[in-house]
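Researcher: Here's the sequence for the chain we discussed earlier.
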Amino acid sequence: MTTGASAAAVSLHATAVIHGDAGVLILGPSGSGKSALALALLARASAAGAFGALVGDDRIFVREAQGRLIAWGAANMAGVIERRTAGLIQVRHEPAAVARLAVELCEHGRRWPRMPDDPDRLTIGGVELPRLALDSSLGVCDQALVVEERLAVLTASAPQLGISLEHCAAVHKNGPAEISPPT
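Model: Thanks. This is the structure I predict for it:
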């Protein structure tokens, strides 16, 4: 793992979203439900009044920066995701995210072991991430609920930085707030 911010990008067949303040990288073979899970996570975030945005669908680029995994999608497909039977749709999007969780979907017709011995960590682009293996035969609502539960556990055990993603996005888009000196 490098400590600089200029590590080479790696291309993945994946989908990435921001759910709350966490980037979620969804991996799996074609037809495993990556886009459906991403749309379900975005819908659940919206219903809960939380932040949710697509980073990219089908092709994600990642690189290590200061020990974190930065993920972004293809610029020409910003905000575009495939909804099966409906085609390409436009959704809220952000250009990049720090991935905090890797979700691995298995191909349809195959199942993960019920009590897997696999490690719950996955190394991508030189960065080790918590891994959540999900069975593609589960409904996307069930999958989204499991992802949210894992994110809640990760958030509860992570040190708090004191700056929310929403605050960072507002400052990025609107510029820093003007603060008057005390009189």
